[in-house]
From TrEMBL:
Belongs to the SNF7 family. This is CHM4C protein. It is found in: Cytoplasm, Cytosol; Late endosome membrane. It holds the Pfam family Snf7. GO terms for biological process: late endosome to vacuole transport via multivesicular body sorting pathway; protein transport; vesicle budding from membrane. The gene is Chmp4c. The lineage of its organism: Eukaryota, Metazoa, Chordata, Craniata, Vertebrata. It comes from the Eukaryota. Residues 1-25 are annotated as: Disordered. InterPro entries: Snf7_fam (IPR005024). It comes from Calonectris borealis (Cory's shearwater). PANTHER family: CHARGED MULTIVESICULAR BODY PROTEIN, CHARGED MULTIVESICULAR BODY PROTEIN 4C.
Length: 163
């Protein structure tokens, strides 16, 4: 079975069918393969168009019938080339959308892991204990400030009199 028929008939590994569809990596790989195949076909058609144009020029006025046939084939090839361009554009759009979707899924999954980690870190914390700790810290800071103020005041040895 050719790659294209596998692509359109849904052929693929048994593992991907068992899971309810291909993984994003498998789908991206297939889209890239299809893009590559269409690009090669584009190149082929472009060379055929050039050959038919050269043949039409060669026959020119000598053999108008052969020149017209070459131009008709060239026009057919150009139509095929135009269709391939449209198909490639659609496939590129789909591939980019799939890549973005896969990226968003990974980001969301990692954010979920981070949320679980934060939950695990916070499960041993009690708000009442935190409030008590913060009050203790504030009290100790106040005591430290009072001590600092007391030390920084100039000692008034003999400057002040008590009448």
């Amino acid at each position: 079975m050719s790659k294209i028929s596998k692509f359109f008939k849904g052929g693929g590994s048994a593992a991907s069918k068992g899971r309810g569809g291909p993984s994003p990596q498998e789908a991206l790989a297939r889209l890239r393969e299809t893009e590559e195949m269409l690009s090669k076909k584009q190149e082929y058609l472009e060379t055929r168009i050039e050959r038919e144009l050269a043949a039409a020029r060669q026959h020119g006025t000598k053999n108008k019938r052969a020149a017209l046939q070459a131009l008709k084939r060239k026009k057919r090839y150009e139509k095929q080339l135009s269709q391939i361009d449209g198909t490639l554009s659609t496939i590129e759009f789909q591939r980019e959308a799939l890549e973005n979707s896969h990226t968003n899924t990974e980001v969301l999954k990692n954010m979920g892991y981070a949320a679980q980690a934060m939950k695990k870190v916070h499960e041993n914390m009690d708000l009442n204990k935190i409030d008590d700790l913060m009050q203790d810290i504030t009290e100790q800071q106040d005591v430290a400030q009072e001590i600092s103020d007391a030390i920084s005041n100039r000692a008034a040895f003999g400057d002040e009199f008590d009448e």
